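R.M. (postdoc): so does anyone remember the format we settled on? I'll just put the structure tokens first.
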């Protein structure tokens, strides 16, 4: 316990480096990107440990204390992003894009459900089929289907079209 108290009574340059390091890391947590404040904060924290520690054991203890403080700062930042002042800032997206509002994450292939087409390649089980002039990659239900065979879309999962031989 006495060693920890002795470590806490740092010299001024080490204390300033550690304090500024924590401030810059906290600034980095509240601004987007990994930029100058984060790198500068980490360098200042390393310099503070180097200036404060007289032995390897002291450096390890200081590093553990710094990690615990960084975890605490990150926890506070995450809480603020969810419920606090940061949640009210323009940095946090408040609305979601959902299907009911007309947003999709890509091309909606649900339109092809039930459509019939002709395979243009062998389906082993993946291949290509033509649906009224639109060539799409399709997946058979596990069976081998030759090129030129009539198929029907029986299931749509995202970008996968599952087809069955007619």
């Amino acid at each position: 316990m006495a060693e920890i108290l002795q470590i806490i009574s740092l010299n001024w340059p080490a204390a300033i480096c550690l304090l500024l390091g924590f401030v810059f890391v906290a600034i980095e947590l509240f601004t987007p990107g990994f930029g100058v404040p984060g790198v500068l904060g980490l360098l200042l924290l390393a310099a503070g440990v180097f200036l404060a520690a007289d032995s390897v054991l002291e450096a390890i203890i200081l590093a553990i204390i710094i990690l615990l403080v960084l975890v605490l700062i990150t926890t506070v930042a995450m809480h603020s992003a969810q419920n606090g002042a940061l949640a009210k800032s323009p940095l946090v997206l408040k609305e979601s894009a959902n299907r009911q509002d007309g947003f999709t994450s890509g091309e909606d292939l649900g339109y092809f459900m039930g459509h019939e087409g002709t395979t243009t390649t062998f389906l082993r089980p993946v291949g290509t089929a033509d649906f009224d002039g639109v060539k799409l990659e399709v997946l058979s239900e596990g069976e081998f289907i030759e090129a030129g065979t009539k198929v029907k879309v029986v299931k749509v999962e995202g970008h996968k079209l599952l087809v069955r031989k007619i």
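R.M.: ...and that's the designed sequence above, right after the tokens. Also worth knowing: Residues 36 and 115 are 55 Å apart (CA to CA). Strands lie at 116-119, 126-131, 134-140, 150-157, 160-165.
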